[in-house]
Every structure is written in structure tokens, then in C-alpha cells.
Design a protein that fits this description.
Radius of gyration: 15 Å
Largest sheet: 7 strands, mixed
Oligomer: single chain
Number of strands: 7
Structural class: alpha+beta
Distance between the termini: 49 Å
Helix content: 25-40%
């Protein structure tokens, strides 16, 4: 079993978003908690658990967007067992979010942050925050 350092874990997280979602299985503890998941369409899923929960976060974006790219805005900040990173998201809107007035095909840009608790070389807890106001404005939901 390969044990990754915290920077490697974050690099693999980005790679899972952009290339191969199955990489999540290599970096996630079986009892990982994904805290307070709110889908792109605003529906809350509450807390989810395990690698499949992290995959669900990624799959949710792919439900509404093509050509997804998640990139680090800066090197992740590592503080003890925590990894904090700021990211940029781009994707081409596919449609499907109720009341969105923007047409499918529009490129959307968002910023957000990830916070991971890493234990024994695996993601144990995941929190994230993203600029919902940016999404509302770009999808013309106002």
C-alpha cells in the first residue's frame, strides 16, 4: 500500500477531478466524512461517508458541466494533519439547473476552498466552500 504525503494527496485530488475519478480510492479512508454536501442545484445531501462520498462531490459537477477543470490557485497550506487549498473551477454548462436562464454551452468559472483532515496518509474528513453567488450570477438565477 502506497502512503502519500499531504501535497501528493492534494495533487491526486485534482487529478481525480480532471482525469480519473478512481484515484479517490487510493487517497480516502473508508470512514471518511464529507461534511454538509450541497449539490450544484442547491439540494442538500447532508453528510456523506467514504470514498463514494468524495466521488459524489465530483460527479455532481459533471452532472451539470462538461469540460471540467479544477486547478489549484496556490500551493496547498499544510498545518499539522490539515490541508487547505484554494481552487479555480471552470466548466461548460450543460443545463439542468432549474430556473437557470443561461443557455447550455456557457463557460462558468468559480472559486472555492478545500479543507482536508489527513490521517495515516488518507483523507479522513473533507469540508469545502465555494462561491455560490458567483454561480447564481453566471447562471442568471437572480
Amino acid at each position: 500500500m502506497v502512503v502519500y504525503n499531504k501535497k501528493q494527496i492534494y495533487a491526486l485530488w485534482l487529478q481525480a477531478w480532471n482525469e480519473d475519478i478512481s484515484l479517490i480510492d487510493n487517497i480516502t479512508a473508508a470512514d471518511c466524512t464529507v461534511h454538509y454536501v450541497r449539490r450544484m442545484d442547491g439540494k442538500s445531501l447532508g453528510d456523506l461517508y467514504g470514498g463514494e462520498a468524495l466521488k459524489e462531490v465530483i460527479k455532481d459537477c459533471y452532472t451539470f458541466f462538461n469540460d471540467v477543470n479544477l486547478s489549484a490557485e496556490m500551493e496547498p497550506i499544510i498545518n499539522g494533519p490539515y490541508v487547505l487549498a484554494r481552487w479555480n473551477f471552470t466548466g461548460v454548462y450543460k443545463g439542468g439547473i432549474a430556473e437557470a436562464k443561461v443557455k447550455a454551452g456557457e463557460k462558468i468559472r468559480l472559486k472555492g476552498m478545500d479543507l482536508f483532515l489527513i490521517k495515516n496518509g488518507k483523507i479522513k474528513n473533507y469540508w469545502f466552500s465555494w462561491d455560490r453567488a458567483q454561480l447564481i450570477e453566471q447562471l442568471d438565477l437572480l
